[in-house]
Amino acid sequence: MDGVDKEKVQRVVYEMSKGSKYFENEKRREALVMQKIQHMKSQSALLTDSDVKNHEKAADIKIKNLETQRDLSRIWMHVDLDAFYAAVETLENPTLAGKPMAVGGMSMICTANYEARKFGVRAAMPGFIACRLCPDLIFVSPNFEKYTSYSEKVRQVFHDYDPNFLARSLDEAYLDITDQCLSRNMSSEEVAEELRRRVYDLTGLTCSAGVAPNRMIAKVCSDVNKPNGQFIVPNDRAAVMAFVSSLPIRKIGGIGKVTERILKEVLSVSVCEDLIDKRGLISALFSSISTDFFLSVGLGIGGSTTPVEEPRKSLSCERTFSEISHEDGLFAKLEELADNLARELESEELQGRTITLKLKTATFEVRTRSLTLPFLVCRKEDLLIHASKLLKAELPLSLRLMGLRVSHFQGDSSFLNQRTLAEYFSVGNSAGSGSSEISLASGSSVVPSFTAEVSDKSAELSQKNGKNTDGTNSKIRDGTLVDCFFQGTDSGSALDCPPLLKEMRWIDDLQCSLCKLEIPSFLETERQEHVDFHFAELLQRRYADGFDLEAGSQGVETQTRRHLSQPYKGTLSKRGHIDRAIDSKGKRKCLSIDAFFSKD
DNA sequence: GGGGGAAGGACCA
DNA sequence: TTCCTGGTCCTTCCCCC
């Protein structure tokens, strides 16, 4: 931004943050980056000329490969609305026009209009610092409903130019305008001008556009003549290379403050062209994925085909608050988050297996603690049970932020179409249950359990060696089989997984009957284990207040998940004990089944 | 060596 | 007085097979 007294801005920001906890944390992070840079420098110093030459050769092969992927047949446009939130607020309240204004509050600013930017006020700047930079700054609270409704209008226009346009946020999108240009015999420049005019006519908002053969370059282009302008890089290799050659690496999406510093300080790379010149060192010092990325940046290649829409990977909720150190207060916050997140999960019809607790301490240190369960969860109660354990383990704490995330969603879409247990049993066991057997527990409640045979060979081998020998996880102790886990049906497994298992999923309406579960007679049998797969969850629920099954070995989980998608976690001993269970104090417990079920 | 989980961090809007 | 939120991806470390 021209006309900004950068030095003054830096000085004010420094003066205002100096000595604060935030500042101290920044210094800590800065030291870590420096350490990383030093480490990479020393690694670089160890490289011989021939090392670098060899890496250069490897990079050349990569470059050759990348060149074959260069696609100049599509015309991409990146559209970015100018100071979007601020512009919407000004449209709704014209008295704000021409005055420095920021959307956000004293703690943080979402965006600032161009008048405010002249003072150095920027998005992601705390409001109190912005106030110092620009004492007349007007604050407006964000109103996302309003922005969403404007965004929808703008998207109507986008849709006319590319029905498959990619919306990146409320104020940004990528459009493939190739067909528009061809069918209407218009240049990309004309299309961009027309689109921007239509957006303005419909909403009163101005936007900037960038046009290039791929999204990576188009994104950079939209920034060139911002605000209310456009810039075009023609679909021509030489033009792309010329544009990229002097382009500062920081302009590229994916290269942020830290990466920029590392590239500059370790490799003296500052513009994209340097990435090709330094390909040998890059290949030597960075991972293959990072090297590929840096090389494609140097070549101006990136994102020319329409990507397939990926399903969501995680869903989270986090809140910043004024410092809390009291346990009750922390758990109350957690409950709020669990409640919020459960609602979100419900509205998106998602269930996940991994729960991640995010904590930001009063000193701005960020910690995450996660837990992957053997079953899917989405209800508030379940989130809370597991997240509470994660939180408990971190106490005492003084926090300024807490967040909760669920990920590891059930990827297999067929899983979602599976029948519930209730449905399964209401139509009988006719659907290809194969080798499975259904045994009913005594009493009226219908409880499925599975039969799995443990091969004699496996048991023998286990007995002989005292450990697993053939990929199974059965163990022999005192002449009886304990620690028996399920595995898949591929050859070599001793335990056979009934296809029935794939028909199951945890459902709430079965919880009552699950609580009446009785352990069938398998405990007395010699060479046969019937394990009800609801058992693990039953235990989890039963001891929700701090009694946890110790995780089975990771390998077992892996195996089990791979084949069954519903792993059994925990250990059930043949002699009727719940073995290796851990209570809330971390003590290992051994309960008899009788004792377990006689509780309350 | 590869797969998976945990933790941390970079980056983006 | 006061430094966000929600998401993705990558890396590193470690365990287990």
Describe the structure.
There is one protein chain. Mean pLDDT is 69; it is low at 412-600. The protein starts with 5 loop residues before the first helix and ends with a helix. Helices cover 43% and strands 18% of the residues. A hairpin with a 2-residue loop joins strand 5 (166-169) and strand 6. With 600 residues, the chain is an alpha+beta fold. It binds a DNA duplex (13 and 17 nucleotides) through helix 2, strand 3, helix 6, helix 12 and strand 9.
How is the topology of this model organized?
Blueprint (H helix, E strand, L loop, with lengths): L5 H12 L3 H26 L2 H21 L6 E6 L2 H9 L8 E4 L4 E4 L1 H4 L9 H7 L4 E3 L3 H18 L4 E4 L2 E5 L1 H6 L4 H16 L3 E6 L2 H8 L7 E3 L4 H9 L11 H11 L4 H6 L1 H7 L2 H12 L14 E11 L2 H21 L4 E10 L4 E12 L2 H13 L6 E11 L3 H4 L4 H6 L23 E4 L2 H10 L9 E3 L2 E3 L28 H5 L12 E4 L3 H8 L4 E3 L4 H11 L6 E2 L4 E7 L4 E5 H6 L2
Parallel strand pairs: 2-4, 7-8
Antiparallel strand pairs: 1-6, 1-7, 2-3, 5-6, 9-12, 10-11, 10-12, 13-16, 14-15, 17-19, 18-19, 19-20
Helix pairs in contact: 2-12, 3-14, 3-15, 7-9, 16-17
The structure holds a DNA duplex (13 and 17 nucleotides).
EC number: 2.7.7.7
Catalytic activity: DNA(n) + a 2'-deoxyribonucleoside 5'-triphosphate = DNA(n+1) + diphosphate
GO cellular component, one term: nucleus
